[in-house]
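Q: Given only this backbone (189 positions), what sequence would you predict?
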């Protein structure tokens, strides 16, 4: 669950709520995260939510072991709650979501959405925003499971350790929060 904060009071985060087809979603249960090196996983029945920190940003993904039911002509859907003071703005085409401060400054970008089946075939996928919900949609007709839904989360302003914005030596750190019980948080940097 990416979470962003700055010296300004606005905050935002996403929280996985469920998955299924169309609006018929199975709620996800709170589980204890499993961490190894730069990867954190939340393993639930049929779906693993994972986060991997790398040089390009935080990669958030879902691996679905099997179809969550009958599609009935509906798109496979992963639903996330959007919380906080940031405003969600979906770019045309449904592949990029910006989380903006009220002054319009983009602070977090959800981008690079790709979904592949077990054969490596890329499946049509897109993002939708409905109120406080972010929906990741996938046409999985004819797909072979498991599926991997794989977008990136990027912080848009990089700050170097000396405080200089957009420095050549800058790096981004996006803290991750969990949702089981009292949420532990990654250490502040």
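A: Predicted residues:
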């Amino acid at each position: 669950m990416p979470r962003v904060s700055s010296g300004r009071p606005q905050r935002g985060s996403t929280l996985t709520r469920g998955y299924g087809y169309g609006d018929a979603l199975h709620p996800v249960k709170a589980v204890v995260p499993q961490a190894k090196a730069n990867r954190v996983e939340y393993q639930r029945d049929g779906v693993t939510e994972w986060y991997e920190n790398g040089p390009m940003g935080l990669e958030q993904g879902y691996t679905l072991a099997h179809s969550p039911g009958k599609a009935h002509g509906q798109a496979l859907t992963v639903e996330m709650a959007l919380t906080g003071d940031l405003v969600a703005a979906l770019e045309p085409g449904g592949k990029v979501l910006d989380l903006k401060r009220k002054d319009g400054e983009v602070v977090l970008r959800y981008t690079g959405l790709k979904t592949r089946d077990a054969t490596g075939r890329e499946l049509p996928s897109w993002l939708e925003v409905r109120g406080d919900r972010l929906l990741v949609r996938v046409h999985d007709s004819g797909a072979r499971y498991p599926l991997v839904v794989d977008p990136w989360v990027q912080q848009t302003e990089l700050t170097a350790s000396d405080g200089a914005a957009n420095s050549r030596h800058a790096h981004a750190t996006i803290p991750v929060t969990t949702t089981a019980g009292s949420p532990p948080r990654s250490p502040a940097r």
